[in-house]
Specification:
Elements (H helix, E strand, L loop, with lengths): L1 H32 L16 H11 L10 H20 L15 H9 L2 H11 L3 H32 L4 H7 L4 H4 L1 H14 L24 H26 L12 H22 L5 H29 L1
Helix pairs in contact: 1-3, 1-10, 1-11, 2-10, 3-4, 3-5, 3-10, 5-6, 6-7, 6-9, 6-12, 9-10, 9-12, 10-11
């Protein structure tokens, strides 16, 4: 019972802290990449408390429910958007034995719960009583339906190579030469993951500078902050899953007892790459986004899966 409580508390603390760290890193990394100063006075060192100040600001703002909104759907949408990432984070291992829930079908579980997040966006668009929000929600659904297939296929390739659906089992079976063998799958998985999180350059459904934040247009205060937190939590989950599937999880110099350090460093590195992509690439058009998914990523993912099956059978 005590072990269960410790695991639950550990997952909740990680869920509350890690997305905030990624959000703060995004502010600072983007500022350095774009050679701009940004907020520097909230906190004693380089504005470290700016994200905390933003959180306090969101809490103090009034959470308005539009008169034409479906109130229950509108209020539940932020919760539905963020909770799947809490469940996913519980199944991603940091090191042998350091995992919230070591499931035999951990990969299947994480991919399944991550796909639930789209319901939050659909609920936000539908429940807002705003045709522009509804259009944004439908755009999110169309995008996630397109990129879910290459996302799952590239992950399945690793599962075939490892002979296991357990995330811990995949991390233990990983070999350094997989970095070459599964490189196409890694590329597809990462790109599709960015699209699923609606991160630039795949933020067309949200595009705050063009369509006023898509399905989240009518949200204010803490409910709006929950959608932002869900995005950062999604980055942590994507980075953690990429680390386990393609980068060896806790594998690194030294004993497994310090493997959690390597896991955290790899997750941080992948998170920085997510931020770097946002800074470096322009937003795609809707037709370009769909073309990349169906004519680019899906064929590559299928080819990777076929080659992995052949390699496992022969070697």
């Amino acid at each position: 019972m005590l072990e269960f409580v410790v695991r639950v508390v550990g997952v909740v603390v990680a869920f509350l802290v890690a997305p905030l760290l990624v959000g703060q890193a995004e502010h600072k990394v983007m500022a350095h990449m774009q050679s701009r100063l940004g907020p520097m006075y909230a906190g004693a060192f380089h504005g470290w408390a700016q994200l905390v100040a933003d959180g306090v600001k969101f809490v103090q703002k009034e959470s308005v429910v539009p008169a034409a909104a479906d109130r229950r759907v509108f209020e539940w949408a932020p919760i539905v958007a963020i909770l799947p990432y809490l469940a996913a984070m519980a199944a991603i291992p940091l090191a042998p034995g350091i995992v919230g829930a070591d499931l035999d079908s951990g990969l299947f579980f994480v991919l399944a719960v991550m796909s639930v997040g789209v319901l939050g966006s659909l609920m936000a668009g539908w429940g807002s009583g705003n045709k522009y929000s509804l259009l944004g929600g439908l755009r999110v659904a169309a995008q996630l339906m397109s990129y879910e297939l290459p996302f799952v296929l590239s992950a399945a390739s690793v599962a075939v190579a490892a002979g296991s659906l357990s995330l811990s089992g995949i991390a233990e079976a990983w070999n350094p030469w997989w970095l070459l063998w599964q490189l196409p799958g890694l590329s597809v998985f990462f790109i599709a993951g960015l699209a699923e999180l609606q991160r630039p350059p795949f933020d067309m459904p949200v595009a705050d500078s063009e369509v006023i934040f898509g399905p989240y247009t009518e949200y204010t205060g803490l409910r709006f902050a929950m959608f932002l937190l869900a995005e950062y939590a999604g980055i942590v989950v994507l980075a953690g899953l990429t680390t386990v599937l393609f980068l060896g999880g806790w594998s690194g110099p030294g004993p497994d007892s310090i493997g959690w350090i390597w896991s955290i460093l790899k997750v941080a590195l992948v998170s920085v790459v997510v931020i770097w992509v946002r800074v470096s690439f322009p937003r795609m058009r809707a037709d370009q986004l769909q073309k990349l998914a169906w004519q680019g990523l899906v064929p590559v993912a299928l080819l990777q899966l076929a080659l992995t099956g052949i390699g496992v059978t022969i070697f």
